Structures are given as structure tokens and as C-alpha cells.
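In the laboratory, one determines a bound structure by crystallizing the protein with its ligand and collecting diffraction data. In a computational setting the workflow is compressed into a single prediction: the sequence and the ligand go in, and a structural description comes out. We illustrate the idea with histidyl-adenosine monophosphate.
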Amino acid sequence: MINLPRGTQDILPGESEKWQYLERRFIELCTRYNYKEIRTPIFEHTEVFQRGVGDTTDIVQKEMYTFTDRGNRQLTLRPEGTASVARAYVQHKLYGQVKQPQKLFYYGPMFRYERPQAGRMRQFIQFGIEALGSADPAIDAEVIDLAMTFYQSLGLKSLRLVLNTLGDQESRMAHRNALINHFTPIKDELCSDCQVRLEKNPLRVLDCKKDCDHEAMASAPKILDYLTEDSRHYFEQVKKYLDELGIEYVIDPTLVRGLDYYNHTAFEIMSEAEGFGAITTLSGGGRYNGLVEDLDGPNTPGIGFALSVERLLLALDAERIVLPVEQALDCYLIALGEEAELKASGLMKTLRLAGLQVDKDFLAKKMKAQLKTADREKAKFVLIMGDQELEEEAVLVKDMANGTQETVSFDSIVNYLKERL
Ligand code: HAM
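The predicted complex, in C-alpha cell form:
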């Protein structure tokens, strides 16, 4: 027997309905906020992520599924969606469209070579949105609002929105220098990765999973103390809009996010539900005003977020929320005898074309066993067809809710069922 690869999962019937349901809810919500779907390839040129997500991030350095194809191209299974969306935005010149900002959503599998645990998979499904072309703090709030509303509309309550700003280029440079000054004297005590990070991208030191308990972390310079007036003002505006929308948040100046493209607004939504598990982040996002330019496009502001369905399902479980996905058949057909079997096939097609959910037995089971199946499938009606019914060109309809039976002619069966369902 061959098992599936580590960090992946099969989603079987009984579970897959939940995924479909969440997908539908997400699409519906995005549509209400006027976000349109974009579908990009599952693999991209590796450079998209090297340049987009950033060379010094864990994602690019350690977690990408990169391969050389038969034409000697360096390709990577997408570890996230934002860089791909920005790549497509540039390639299709979406910045030239009349409609701005471009408000886009996507969902699909992402791939990261991480150490698997609950809520951390090597293949996982992200739902995400990106708004490109606006530097209005109101859209930062809109993106956060959509994320929070999605969770809340599913019934989640133990949510915590954590907010920070990473400032503009100038704020970041000032903060960067302060970080270098802070960590350089104790450089030898940091892990080998952080020693490199300190030179290339000191912000990444704050995100280190190995050194997170080092005392120098807590006392590290905070971006909020290095913000330019503009950045400070922008952040204040975002908060005002969030207040207006009634969205509660906590400011965490240590929130830096694990991808390099961020500036200004950064946020994560955590689950505080008991039993949710070690990883508490449900989703994350932020502003990335330089990303489109990094991918050879014009200077374009952008903001977005992404969540994973895996973690969402864990949070729903932790809060004991049951999704309304139970499926029931409208009808189950039982035919007795060869001729009836044949006729039942035709009738089944008629009913299906009329929009009903219908099935029948294909294992030549006895009548009693077929009734059991109908029960298990939660069929609302059982349609029985034997010799007598054939002769009368009718079926015996059994209403499974109350056990009543009625003979209904072939001609009127569709209308009869539609009225009763
Ligand atoms: P991220 O924080 O890397 O950001 O991932 C976003 C979300 O994807 C996480 O909060 C988590 O729910 C989920 N996730 C990440 N890795 C895994 C994993 N291995 N297994 C299960 N779930 C996972 C991004 O990906 C950015 N592209 C978000 C964004 C969009 N920023 C701006 N626009």
C-alpha cells in the first residue's frame, strides 16, 4: 500500500462537504465586498517568490518545493498567493484598467516544506484577497473587516485581532539600524540563521523560532518608536476606520509577519479558543506597497490577507461549531424486477433533469436492504416500482417523514415531488 506524502491529507466524503461549504461562504462574502476571483497557476518561476516573498525569509530559504522541469526551468509550487497575484497584475497590466483598486480573491492549495503538526501542513488550502492600487487606509480596514466578518459569520467568537504597523521605507530603515545596534553586541548568542539575518534583514531576527526566548528579543527596539510622521498618521487612520466598523484589536509592536513584502499595516487573527492547539494564528495579512514594483510593475500600493481552511476547521472544532452541511437525498428509487429496473433508470434521469437529488440501488439488493439504504441516505421520499405500478404507469411514493404512501402517475410525479419538497 502506498500512503500519501507527509503533511498532506485526503479529504473524504463526509469531510469534503465542509470544504465546499466554506468555499461557497467565502466566495459569497467576497462577492458582497465586490472582490473578483483570480486564478493563477499552482507553480510559478521560482524568481516570483524569491523576489516577491523575499530571499531571507524562511519560506524561500527552507520551505519551497522547487524543481527543474524538463526544459531546465526553475519552478516552484506556490507557497502563498500574494506574489503570484502581483505577478499576474503586472503581466496583464491590471494597473491600466479603469476599475481601481483591483479587488481580487483566490482560493486553492499552497505548498510549504514545514514540519507537519495540527494546523501546519505541507499542502494546505488558502483563501485570500488582495486589493491593489489604493493607499487609502479605509481599504486596510475593509480587508481586515472581510477577514473578521468571514470568521464571525461562521459563528467563531474567540477571536483576537492583532495589529501593528511596519511603517514606510524611512521608518523601516531607522528601525533596521536600531535593530543592528541592539543585536550586534550579542550576535554570538544568536542562532546561525539569525547571525546572517542580522546582516541581510534584521527584522527577520524578531521572527526567529529558535531565538524567540532570548532576553534581547523582549527589549529589542520597537518599530512604533521609529515611525515617520506620515506612517504614524496612516496607522492612526487605519485604527479610526476599524473603530468606525466596530472591530476590536490589540496593538502588538512585535508582530512582524514572516514575509518580506510588508510595510505599514500588518495584522494576524488568532483563535483564543481552548483546545485550538499550539499554533494560534488563524490568518494574516498586511500592506505591501513595494511588491508590484519588485516584480517589474509600476509603483502600486496593495494590501491583502490569507487564511487556511485547515486552521479554520480546527478553530470551528475547538468552539464546537457544526457546519450545516448534512446532505439528504430527495428521492431513493426502488425497482422490483428487470423491467421495473429499466424503467427506474429512465425515471431517475427525468427526476435528475428536473433538479432533484436522486439515487437508486446498483447492487441488486433485496427490498428491505434498499429501504435501509434509503434511510441511511436520509431520502425524503422513496419511490417504489413493481409489476403493478408498471402496469398502471405509476410509482408508489412513500413519504419517509410520516410513512404515508400514495400512488402517483409517471406524468405527474415531477410536479408532485416538487410541490412536496
Ligand atoms: P502567511 O502568514 O504566510 O501569509 O499565511 C497566511 C495563513 O495561511 C496563515 O495565517 C495560516 O492560516 C495559513 N498557513 C500558512 N502556512 C500554513 C501551513 N503550513 N499549514 C496550514 N496553514 C498554513 C501569507 O501567505 C500572505 N500571502 C498573506 C497575505 C495576503 N498578505 C497579504 N496578502
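The chain has a mean pLDDT of 96. Keep in mind that any predicted model is a hypothesis to be tested, not a measurement.
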